[in-house]
Predict the 3D structure of the following.
Amino acid sequence: MSDLALDISLTVNGERVSERVEARKSLVDFLREDLGLTGSHVGCEHGVCGACTMRVNGEIVRGCLMLAVQCDGATVETIEGLSDSGEVADLQAAFEQRNALQCGYCTPGMIAAAQDLLKRAKETKSVPSRDEIREHLSGNYCRCTGYHAIVDAVGFVAQARAGGKK
Amino acid sequence: MKITDDSPSVLSALDRPNSYIGRSVPRPNLQRLTQGRGQYVSDVTLPRMSHVAYLRSPHAHARIVSIKADAAKKAPGVIAVVTGAELAKVMTPWVGVLTHLKGLKSAPQYPIAVDVACWQGEAVAAVVARSRAEAEDACELVEVTYEELPAVVDPETALDAKTPVIHAALGDNLCFERKLDVGAVDKAFAESDAVVETTFMFGRHTGVTTEPRAVVADWNEGEQRLTVYQGTQAPHMMQNLFAKHLSLAEHQVRVLTKDVGGSFGIKVHTYADEMATVALSKLLKRPVKFVADRIESFVTDIHARDHRIKAKIGVNNDGTITAFEIDDLTGIGPYSVYPRTSGIEANQVVNLTGGPYTCPNYRAQARVVFQNKNVMCQYRAVGHPIAVAVTEGLVELAAAKIGMDPLEIRRRNLIADDAYPCASAAGLKFEKLSHHESLAHLDTMMNYAGLRAEQKKLRAQGIYRGIGFASFIEVTNPSAAFYGVGGARITSQDGATVKLDAQGALIVATGVTEQGQGAEAVIAQCVATSFGVSIDKVRVITGDTDNTPYGGGTWASRAAGIGGEAAWQAGKALRGNVLAVAGAMLQAKPEELDIRNGIVVDKVKGTERLSLDELARVAYFRPDTLPPGFQAELMATRHYVPRAWPFAFTNGIQASYLEVDTDTGFVKLLKHWCVEDCGTIINPQLVDEQIRGGVVQGIGAALFEQCLYDERGQMLNGNMADYLVPMAAEMPDIECGHVVSPTADSELGAKGAGEAGTAGAPACVMNAINDALRPLGAQPVTDMPFTPGKILRALGKV
């Protein structure tokens, strides 16, 4: 039983949000239920499947392992924000061209995780190998694709961003 | 017959101008999914919507003595607490039997347990509240008194006289039994140069769809109509079942299926908690939402594959396989799942074992028993992974015994490519398969000789790599022989309706459903090609029983082969109708016109005559200008069901290359290959991705996945931390190749491709592990999943 609710203010996809939330509510439930941001998906609610991967203060997190009240003052970016800003447009296009998604339920989290890898790669001026891509995405469960197409799509964008491919 | 490798095929019979058949066009529905703008059932909210949480039995088998709900009913946000007995007044129970599986029996199952709970996880009460959290809070306040009953857990002893009978009215714990004896099995074994016997074990595992099962039921008392938003593979089947068990007419029920977060056979069954949710909506006269959480998914989503198979093969020194014999025992939980039954998997094992080979002597026994564990039923590739692992495991053990190369023994026994049509020892009818062509293609594609040389070289360095194969057949495009003949209202036919809109674009409604496999793309490709427009002018509607033709949905690899053909024919029919309008407008003979790239042209010269936009304008807004008595019909429907063959069998062969760490028992998958023949390939990319995803699902079964139960029927690893699934880092790249033998049963010639990967992968991973370990004198491993511990035991290291 929880009567405890707290007021939080945060920035979600560039918009300032102030809400009263139950202390026990996870970040992903808050985003989905209170803000209607259903692009972040709930797969396991115990931090294994990665379907709720999103960005908080620039780092990818599991939306199910963080409480909404922990995000007071934070900057949260979900797939809706990443899409609208165009930040992951090339990744999305590559996923579509390569059919790197089937049911699409894991895809928002997968793209957030892939974008994290590609950002790191840019900082170190490196292009991740297939094995490195597989390793980085190893916390994001996909039952449909068998991962091969996802690795292809992320690899393609990694090359393209490094100037290797168009 | 012709070989293609990840490249568009050229299909003369379907070679219309601007044909999309054989082209890897991207799926039309992907952008909304990559942007997080899909609509899964778990995303659906409705006015006045309430949420249900189910209180589930902590015992595998227990009498429900009493349920005290007073405190729960007073809890914040609670709308109702409902027991099984109360809900039984709203919804009738069901029994999962099919008449063509002779003797199959089961007990009535209720949406919520009445009197007795038969597995750990069965719902015993429902709490409906304003939010799921409040419903879960109140569940903790419901006091249930149980009298624990002895749990039947081990299939091996389920039929023993001293084992309690789960459903007394059934008399025993036997659900279904089948025996088959073809040829002269005993004589063949007696005369064989060698006989190999072993026992194969298959771990009980489950689908772990990324989106758990989800349903929003909305009974509108004012309309006397039920609308159910459900992540399902078979909307029309569910429409029938909801209506039947709520005593409604089917037209009072609408099932809507938008995006579905993974299915694989998990979402094609009747689940007690989903039925209960629908009944609760009727009872409470308001929308009720149920989304299984991951913990309850593990104990309620159907499990599959829990089989123990004693198996035997006879072989001569020249490689001739003389006989197969299997004895299958499987425990399917306390109920045969409705309406497809839990007898199908064992039945398939009997049907499919030995299927690729000419061997005429085959004996099989299968027994399906009840137990107090979660229910088992059809999951991707139903029975195939078991039959293929048994067959191919035996074939490679036999090859090793007589010292023959594993591909060579297959060459000597696979049904010849020019032997069709023919039948297997079990009686399966094959129209046209290509085992030898597929094998030859695989041999080249993987550079088998080169890999063997590499393997030999590395062995000298103490590195143990293995190569394993699996030839297979796959049941696709099922006719009514699967379910309809057994009395189930599960249709095998499917339909498509194509409508020309007022700007010359097409709207297609189809009875098949999109589970992510790309059905919408395939349907659009078929219609765009047979009608004659570019694919961006085709919009596909699926998953709505009010607005799509009556159809079966997606299961048994039927959507492309059956739904695609219906769409192809509907597109053709509408082309005829449109050309009749064009003929009237142009004062030309319709048969001398065609539609190409959205424009009516002279069939022979290709001269452009009329745009579809203009044709639609006239037909819809100026019909007064058309000849008297002429009526334009700009909507056409066609249906299709396979008639010439009960099933369109496909075939193929897979190979696995892996390395076993003999110190830790870990298996590293290096590469996987699959050559398969699904007939006409409508979209090569989608076929390959079905193969790849299927292979990885099969690898999960081979290496990781198992629902572990203790002796009291408690599932021990029902969460994603303890139940391992394949993740990206452990999976290999998968190379696909194709041989194309179209079925003549349809104009399109497409067979199914959805399950081939899962069918063959466990077998070839098993064979590759045994190939790697053979020089070390290890006992062959035959007990899936092949965990490091089992491999170390096989090596005698622990």
Chain B has three domains: 3-38+493-640, 41-149+212-260+266-300, 383-478+644-794. Residues 1-13 of chain B have pLDDT under 50 and may be disordered. The radius of gyration of chain B is 27 Å. Residues 3-38+493-640 of chain B form a domain with the Aldehyde Oxidoreductase; domain 4 fold (CATH 3.30.365.10).
